[in-house]
Design goal:
The protein is α+β, with helices and mostly antiparallel strands. Helix content is about 60%, strand content about 15%. The chain has a 3-stranded mixed beta sheet with strand order 2-4-5, covered by helices on one side. A two-stranded antiparallel sheet has the order 1-3. The chain is extended and about 75 Å long. It starts with a helix and ends in a 12-residue tail after the last strand.
Length: about 170
């Protein structure tokens, strides 16, 4: 009947609208990962290195390009990606932060397993939080550790830092 056809048509239109809203939300979330202060800080650091250490500035530009490319690729990728691709993105980010923080940032990779899939930009925000909220708050910086291991039920990715930490009983104060 015409009534059923109209219901199906309306349901299809609603589904398309929801799908579009979901995609726009995903893009918004991904764009929020590219924080302007980080971009400005990295560019300022690279600019300073152009005179002091042109070779390091050149490497920094390569890492920055790879970092931005990883974020842009995540905007268009709707499926899981190899962990190794996400790890390369994290490594580029951490090299940029290390370039900015010098000796105040140490990095340890304990990668026991890397042959598995994850959603794009899964661990980069966690690593960013470890640096931003863990190490920059601690005098002298510290170490970020990225580790993976396989268990009987799947894979475990751990991001740890040697930052100040916080008291969970007073977290919201």
């Amino acid at each position: 009947s015409i009534r059923n056809v109209m219901k199906e048509h309306n349901a299809s239109i609603r589904a398309q609208k929801l799908e579009k809203e979901l995609e726009e939300s995903r893009i918004s979330i991904m764009l929020s990962q590219i924080q302007p202060h980080f971009i400005f800080n990295v560019l300022g650091t690279i600019r300073g290195l152009c005179r002091e250490n042109p070779e390091q500035a050149w490497r920094g530009l390569g890492d920055f390009s790879n970092y931005l490319r990883g974020n842009m690729n995540a905007l268009t990728n709707t499926s899981f990606i190899p962990f190794e691709a996400e790890l390369r993105h994290v490594e580029a980010y951490l090299r940029l932060e290390q370039m900015r923080m010098c000796e105040n940032l140490s990095i340890v990779y304990d990668i026991q397993e890397k042959d598995f899939l994850i959603p794009p930009l899964t661990i980069q925000p966690l690593v960013e939080n470890a640096v931003k909220h863990g190490l920059t708050k601690k005098r002298g910086g510290g170490t970020v550790t990225v580790s993976t291991r396989e268990t009987d039920t799947g894979f475990v990715i751990t991001i740890a830092d040697t930052g100040r930490g916080f008291d969970p009983d007073h977290y919201m104060d």
